[in-house]
Every structure is written in C-alpha cells, then in structure tokens.
Amino acid sequence: MYQIDNDTFSALQTAFESVMERCEQLAAAYGSMEKQIEKLNLELDEKNKKLEEAHTILYSILDTMHNGVVAVDTDGKITQFNAAAERSSGFFAKEAIGSDFSDFFGEKGFSEKNVLDVLRSGKGYDRDEKALWNKDGFPVPVVYQSSLLRDAHGNLLGAVEIFNDISKIKQLESENQQNRVLAALGEMAATLAHEIKNPLGALGTWARLLDKSFETSDKRKQTTGKIIDAISRLNKIVSSMLIFGRQGKPELRTLDLKQTLSEFTDSMEIEVVFGNSTQIEVKKNWDETPIIANVDPEKLRQVLLNIALNAVQAMGNTGTLTVSCKTTTRSGGNYAIISIADTGPGIGAEELTKIFTPFHTTKEDGTGLGLAIVKKLIDFHDGVIDVESEVGRGTVFHIFLPIK
C-alpha cells in the first residue's frame, strides 16, 4: 500500500484548502452576480412596464386626437393609422397597418403629396390643403402637414402625415358666402321691386281701362287681355321680390304647434283641396301632447301654405298629403319637426340642390322665390328646413323649429 509522507499530505491539504477557498470565492461571486442579474431584471421589467405604459398613452393620445395621423417606415409600410384617420378615410387601422402604402391606397386616397413623396424627396409639406379620397370614392377636404421621422440619433425611421378634416369649415364658408349673396340679392330685389311696382300698377290700370273701352267682339280686346295677364304675372313677381327682400323679424308668440297645424290643415283642406275639386287626401299625423314653441303664426302659416301648395300642384288631382309633427333632438337642442309629405312625382337629385335658390323655378308661371322665402322665414325663427325626395316616390319637407 502506497504511503503518503507528511510533506506530500501537507501540500495536498494546502492545495485542497486553496481550491475550497476559491470555490467559496466563486460561489460568493456567483451569488453576487445572481443578485445583480435579479436587480437588472427588475429594472428591465420596470423599464419595459414604463415603456409599455408610454406606448399605451401614446396610442391613446393618437386615437383621441381630432387630427388624423398616418405614418410609414422606410420601406413604405404603414406603421400608424389613428382613429381620426379611420373616420376621414373610411379604412380601418387593422387593415391598413402593416400594408404597403402604395398598394393599400392605390391611385387615390392619400396619393396627392403623400408620405411616400416625403420619403423620396426628403422634404415635408407645411400646412397645405388637398382632397383626401375616402373609401367610398368621395373627396374630403383636409389641411395637412408632413415630415420625415427620425430617432434621437438622427437615423431615418420613415415619414408621417398629420391632417384635419375641414369639411364643416368649407361648408360654413360656402353657406356664409351664399348668405352674403342672398342678402345683397334681397336688398337689390326689394329696391328694384319698389321702383317697378308703381309704374307697373299704373300700367295695369290703363290696360284694364283700355280693355273696358272695347266691345266683347272687338279683336283688340283679346290683345289687351294678354297684356293684362302679362302685367299680372309681372306684379306677382314684383310682390314676391318685395316679400323676399323686405322680410322683417318675426313677431314671436308662444303657442301650441299642433293646434296651429290642425287649424292650418283644416282651412287648407277646404280652400285648396275641396275648393279645386281634387281627390287629394289630407292626413294629420300627430298625437294630442302639446308642443310649445315661440313662432310668428302668420309667417309660419305662409311657410306651410307655400310648401303645401307646391305639393298639391305636384300631385295634380289625386294623391295623399301627410302633415306630421313630433319632437326631436338636433345638434344638442330640442326641436319640433313639422313634416309635409306628398305622393307626387318627386324631385331629381340635381334639382334638389337648387330648390331654395332665389329665382330658380321649374314652373312655367313660377317666380322662383316661394321656397327662397320659406327658407328665409325659417332662418328668422332660428330653425332649419330639409328636404328629402326621390323621383317617382314623392317629396318630404322637414321644418325644424326650436322649442321650449
């Protein structure tokens, strides 16, 4: 058996103790490193949590913005498409994000001065206007700006476009311009009508006197009759121009709209329908609950009569005229809505856009001021008038009046 001398044993013991000491040092180092790794993991988790929260806040901000945001990476793939962009374009973010910009939107959409142009040229656009073509193929006017996207070190990430739908602003600008034109037209019409009315009245008087001076069998009486008819038409036009140009503010009274409508439909049925021996049926469509509003009863009657007469003339000898009244909410306010529906031939889409335009008429003997006056009277009541119509299916006028 091999014997280990004392010196060798002592050397082995020293070596073993040294190894054990190093093992203890390594174990201590490993324990320390494990604690450091655990600390780093906690810090990393915290940073990831904060980064996730920051992303959530960023996405929340993007989705609650009224401005649309569209961004692409350097390959032209869509990376951001917020809720406002969805509303304006009609596309959903889930179908847009990750898609190739040029393939997704094709020739229209954001094609005009888009983010791909920014990527190619390296230059953005600062507050400009253009038309954004939505999913249904309709142009949406927008004001927009676009630029390149870079990180904190200046590295290119892509491009972004921020835009705002200005459809309502454009509509208000158009309405404001139209109101100015109508105001100027009204003043001109009133002045012109005033200057014409007196000599026209004298002309009519002399024409009637001349007509009376001829015998019934005199051929000249037929000519004077045509002159009187022409003067009568001119007088009707001039009177309408005066009404359109010189309408004063309504004298408001508090009354029950349904009672006023009931009285109006009763008188109209007797005077217009029965008086002309037509087969038109008049229907009342409302309950007995009062609707109280501040209106000028005479001007409201003028509005209702004008619309009803148009409806009766459109239907001819047969048809149904339905007058209804109820309450509704519009733009945050409470309104009474009076609807007058007929079963006439209806109005074409192009014609429908012109019916409230002064002097526009399709009637041979019309003045083109009836519905223009109606709209003006409703405007005086701080109300709104809308019309729905389809060729072959009749027409409905909706009058919105603010109520208490």
How are the SSEs ordered, and which strands pair?
Layout: H1 6-64, E1 68-73, E2 78-81, H2 83-89, H3 93-96, H4 101-105, H5 115-121, E3 125-133, E4 139-150, E5 156-165, H6 167-212, H7 219-245, E6 253-256, H8 257-274, E7 279-285, E8 292-295, H9 297-315, E9 318-330, E10 333-342, H10 349-352, H11 370-380, E11 384-389, E12 395-402
Helix pairs in contact: 6-7, 8-9, 9-11
Give me the count of strands.
12
Low-confidence stretches: none
Structural class given helices, strands, pairing? alpha+beta
| N- to C-terminal distance | 119 Å
- Portion in helices: 40-55%
Number of helices: 11
Largest sheet: 5 strands, antiparallel
State Rg: 40 Å
Mean pLDDT over the full residue set: 79
Could you characterize what this model shows?
The chain has 404 residues and is α+β, with helices and mostly antiparallel strands. The chain is 51% helix and 23% strand. The chain is built from eleven helices and twelve strands. The strands form three sheets. The chain has a five-stranded antiparallel sheet with strand order 2-1-5-4-3, sandwiched between helices. A five-stranded mixed sheet has the order 7-9-10-12-11, with helices on one face. Strands 6-8 form a two-stranded antiparallel sheet. The model has no long low-confidence stretch (mean pLDDT 79).
